[in-house]
Amino acid sequence: MRWMLFLILALGMVVGGCGGGDKTAPDSGRGVTGKVTVMGSTALLPLAKDAAIKFMEQNHGVTVNVSGGGSFTGLQQVAAGAVDIGTSDVEPPAGDPAYRELVDHVVAVAPFLLIVHPEVGVDNLTREQAVDIFTGKIKNWREVGGKNSVITIIHRPKSSGSRQVIKDTVLGGQEFTGDATVMNSNGEVRQAVANTPGSIGYMDAAYLNDSVKALKFNGSAYTAENVADGSYPIYSLEHMYTKGNPKGAAKAYIDFVLGAPFQADIEKMGFLPVSVLQR
Fold it and tell me: What CATH number was assigned to the domain covering residues 111-228?
């Protein structure tokens, strides 16, 4: 799997540098004008918004509007030409002709966390325990060494890339139990877990605060080093998709996100630069 990720990253970096005859210098985009619409992943939303603010501070002639809605919504909207950039935690469905014109730009690595209400009495879950909880086989925290408390699962709708990431990296493709509460964003999951005794959910690291507890997974806590060496496997590549090669303000915005100055700061937001998997 590691070699496949390296290949995806390499291709994404190459594609991200292409685009029409636009000669705007990477990292700055100074002098460009226009409007850019960005929609999709709520996991990537904090990074996309922060980049938009900083990019517009350097380019007063550009407006960048960023919204969520879920990864699959972002993919559908950019494929339909309704937005300039579709952000996603996952790749489009393989072989679907609706997405054949999309160009991928890998802009970050997003570590995801299994989060619980702070009083469940558990600090770590093995993969088997996590699978059994999310598929509904384990229903009480005492079955995994915690308190005698019923487990409430809080997760995301099927349009969510975050949900797909957990399905792929934690559940190994198995389906979630239907006995769960569905929330529409990472922020809503965090709030629901914080306010619901006995609950468990998932979100990307950018949303972590003291209101919830992040669990270790197979004894490994999330750190950049553990992601790099493979001991912490719950993460996704974060994509910005365009319909065809980007041009003008959209290209300049993506170049800004991939530029060295912005990439150097994204770890502060709970993301990792694309270079982390090449260490």
Answer: 3.40.190.10
Domain 2-109+237-278, classified CATH 3.40.50.620, yes or no: no
Q: How far apart are CA 39 and CA 53, in angstroms?
A: 15
The pLDDT value recorded for residue 274 is: 85
Q: Cβ distance 143 to 126 under 8 Å?
A: no
223: left (phi > 0), else alpha (psi -120 to 50), else beta? beta
Q: Virtual CA dihedral for 260, 231, 105, 84, nearest 10 degrees?
A: -100
What pLDDT does 81 receive? Answer: 97
Separation CA 170–CA 228 (nearest Å): 17
Instruction: List average pLDDT for each run of 10 residues in the chain, which is 279 residues long.
Output: 42 37 43 94 94 96 96 96 96 94 96 97 98 98 97 93 94 95 94 98 94 97 90 95 97 97 92 80
First and final CA of the chain: distance in angstroms? 15
How many C-beta atoms lie closer than 10 Å to residue 50's C-beta?
19
Tokens of 245: 């090669």
